[in-house]
Write a structure and sequence with these properties.
- The protein has about 325 residues and is an alpha+beta fold.
- Helix content is about 45%, strand content about 10%.
- Strands 1, 2, 3, 4, 5, 6 and 7 form a seven-stranded antiparallel β-sheet that branches.
- A hairpin with a 4-residue loop joins strand 4 and strand 5.
- The longest helix has about 30 residues.
- It starts with a strand and ends in a 10-residue tail after the last helix.
């Protein structure tokens, strides 16, 4: 059997992505891991909006905002989706052939240089690590169907061979790519009201782990210190820096706003809605910041971002404090 597929019926030409990746989103793409999780759940007819509670625990880590992703335990509890690290002792294409044939998916690191959906950015230009989910494989025809970023795509030919290193000479310095096995044989589809209650409990759990102070304030201090060095290194460095910092923060705030509104629309406490408004405020501020900062870096001119950063900080504080109050959570414990 040449072709194996974990989910029959997927077609890159007709696939309709989830509303979290709609063109009118402030941040169409979030990060490579959360994006593929969103679309995999959507393809399985599960609701990714329920799985975003862990976004409330993001923090500024000093050189980046948390690279957030749906908790594996949350995915198991909400949907019965089981994700475990895969022991990559064979070429990844051999693992994929085995597991996809059994109705299981594989999430793996991949080089965007060989992913045609990144045309205009990294495809055949830059070697950039990303995450994809393998769903449909035909080794003989050199075809792959895969989730990446905001949708489901297909690639073939030389891209297939280079991505999987088919025909490449043995290289003792090449390290196996990190991969995960995604089992969906125990998927459960709860009624929306029950799913929302479970999601609310998880949001409460993750919110209890929120930062003890305002992460945007700490980010502002670091940015003001680092701006001259960012300007010195130029736009390419800025874009990488912005993706790791402001973009992650802005996208996570938009996801939190949408998560809260989904909870409210599912019949839960409408008093949570003001939190969504505050998270939108923070997300919009991040979008403004990222554009203004790019111009300042390109022109190497002074940049007073205090007003925009204040908006972001107030939005984050307003959103998290509203949620904590409505969910009856105490202030988080201080740093050790």
């Amino acid at each position: 059997m040449s072709r194996v597929t974990a989910l029959p019926g997927l077609d890159a030409e007709t696939y309709q992505r989830h509303m979290l990746h709609a063109d009118d989103r402030v941040w169409v793409e979030k990060n490579c891991y959360v994006d593929v999780c969103i679309e995999l759940l959507h393809a399985l007819r599960l609701e990714p909006l329920a799985a975003l509670g862990s976004c409330a625990a993001v923090d500024f880590e000093g050189d980046n905002f948390t690279f957030y992703k749906p908790s594996h335990e949350d995915l198991r509890e909400l949907f019965g989706v089981n994700i475990q690290e895969l022991n990559v002792w064979l070429p990844i294409v051999e693992h994929a052939h085995h597991h996809l044939a059994g109705g299981e998916f594989i999430s793996t690191e991949a080089d965007s240089f060989f992913l045609p959906d990144t045309a205009g950015t990294d495809y055949r230009r830059n070697h950039v690590k990303s995450t994809i989910i393998l769903a449909d494989l035909d080794v003989e025809q050199r075809r792959l169907g895969y989730f990446h970023n905001a949708s489901y795509y297909a690639l073939g030919g030389d891209d297939f061979e280079r991505l999987f290193r088919i025909g490449a000479p043995p290289d003792p310095t090449f390290l196996p790519l990190f991969a995960e096995l995604i089992r969906v044989d125990r998927v459960v589809r709860q009624p929306r009201a029950e799913l929302a209650q479970a999601a609310l409990a998880l949001l409460r759990k993750h919110l209890s782990r929120r930062a003890v102070d305002n992460p945007v304030v700490r980010f502002q201090r670091r940015f003001e210190r680092d701006l001259p060095a960012i300007q010195e290194r130029g736009l390419d460095y800025y874009h990488a820096w912005a993706f790791a910092t402001v973009r992650q923060f802005g996208a996570v705030c938009e996801l939190l706003a949408l998560h809260v509104r989904w909870l409210v629309d599912s019949g839960l406490d409408g008093a949570l809605e003001p939190a969504a408004v505050e998270f939108d405020r923070a997300s919009g501020g991040a979008k403004t910041f990222i554009l203004k900062a790019a111009r300042a870096v390109n022109a190497r001119r002074q940049f007073d971002a205090s007003a925009t950063l204040d908006e972001m900080a107030l939005g984050w504080a307003g959103g998290t404090e509203t949620l904590a109050r409505e969910l009856g959570l105490p202030a988080p414990a201080g740093r050790a």
